[in-house]
């Protein structure tokens, strides 16, 4: 019998009653309007309510059981979404790469890469005819696929990939091989047993001359029997730290033949006579990664808001220690240090979600440009998607752990679901470009931009601030306004960029090659990149709160957003104070006033913390947390989950009879 009360925990109810805004108003803003919020809720209602609950307890299952359950759940979801016939997600992205659906599959989704990455890859890299043939088959699931780029020996350094595709003039085919153990494809999501096709990036050879990287649609399993095709060695790579149901796989190819027309040929082509037509821009092969990096920002910001919701609701329900002796124990959310753990992470999730919206607009413009043969936005797009992917994933990984600590011992329970979120987010720091490697890419872009700024050339919009900041070595007058806080961060970034540039040049002058100098300047390049990203995120947040709004907001909601912005700006400037002080000598009194503002902003957020999290509007089934459900009946849920533990099924487990008792007896 369920112990769960039908009522909401009174402390949580009190929070909702006394807040300055209604959660609904925040939810409408957060989801970009009433219509979009409705799409999300309809989708959740349609897909979540009759899903099998057991998958949420997947830590109790074996690797194989998790995979089986994940496949079955995916099919249920897919059928329901097909019934709905919705095409766009609430944030304007395609319905398939949807963060709502992501949350519905807590052990991971063996066809996430198929839905989220491969379909877009075929759209970007394939011709319209190829999309008709392969893309549509993926959309309808008559074909299932994986994106098989990474090899056992190379993930980061794509130019080092060893898989080769040789053109056979006689048969009009490509012959694919992974000639060494290190060239085995390793890691692709869904490749183990789920996919019957792969997109394989491989080096293209014509008459034994390498033409560079191209992408090939390679059937790996029989369309009828699903058995591996001749020459294909495929399987699951074994348990990962997280991503339990994702079916990450390995793949070896030995003389596997595919028709020439299975090479994705939007940007480069091989004709029947073997003529090779080069892509107008070689890095277009990398553009699918740009797309996924954008989606990761949205996904991970959502995961941070999930963890923040769990920890904040729990902190409103949990009582521990009085603040004033002789008074009752307070809700732990009233301890100021607890607020410092919770609220900055709420603000971070908002900041990155807003940054995603801007990033995605740039992605859509850049994609349109590419279709029309215009490539000038690519470097900026690449740099921005890299830095936001890095900052959002690393901030979230650290933030989720802080939120876990904020839940004390119970945060460590598997049933809090924070551990699972942490492991998912941890993977995102590595996949789709390891974070340090991506920071170095951004550092490289900053060096180029700085050189252009020194030459008085026009810079790309997201680095345009460097131009002024280069001239303005410090702030003339410090008022401490949000605009000043942003400006000081920008000047600190320009300074960091400047000294990094100087050090790079000094190394070049001393005779180091460009590559050696870049390697030796790596630490500063990554630091400059991080600061640059922070400036973008801060500017976006500031613009949202103070700029002209497309949809009018109530003064109360504006105040709440202003409180969160204040917390974000002050926390950020304090975090990077060591860089700020290099360009502006803030006085002791000015620094103290920032500390006071930090404390005040926490207090300002406090009354609305629960409704802000309610406004993130996470369905209980997505959170699936004993600590974070809407009704706040924490202790009853923890108790119920303990009772469900498989070990408690019998009062005395078999192993006690067979081992522990005999051992105890032997020691009598
Ligand atoms: C029914 C329910 C349905 C539910 C559906 C539910 C669906 C739910 C879905 C939910 C949502 C989905 C969430 C995701 C989930 C994902 C899961 C996990 C996926 C993980 C997938 C992967 O993990 S897949 C492998 C990714 N693997 C990398 O990520 C390798 C990194 N490695 C590099 O990326 C390059 O290797 C590296 C370092 C740049 C050097 O490359 P390199 O050495 O060749 O190049 P250089 O450094 O020399 O650079 C030469 C010049 O190229 C420029 N440039 C470089 N890249 C450029 C680029 N991309 N665009 C433009 N320009 C670029 C550069 O800026 C230079 O420009 P310049 O010369 O002007 O300075
Ligand atoms: C959960 C998960 C899912 C994945 N899914 C897919 C998928 O679907 N398809 C796919 O193709 N791949 C997939 N991958 C692979 C993933 O893309 C790679 O692991 C990732 O790109 C990192 O590459 P790597 O493993 O070679 O790391 P490495 O590059 O070997 O990194 C190891 C260390 O070396 C450092 N390093 C490497 N190069 C440099 C450099 N140039 N400068 C400075 N430091 C450097 C890194 O910073 C890091 O500290 C997945 C990985 C994971 C973990």
UniProtKB/TrEMBL annotation:
FAD binds at residues 150, 189. GO terms for cellular component: peroxisome. Residues 286-447 form the Acyl-CoA oxidase C-alpha1 domain. The keyword Flavoprotein applies. Its cofactor is FAD. GO terms for molecular function: acyl-CoA oxidase activity; FAD binding; fatty acid binding. This is Acyl-coenzyme A oxidase. It comes from Stomoxys calcitrans.
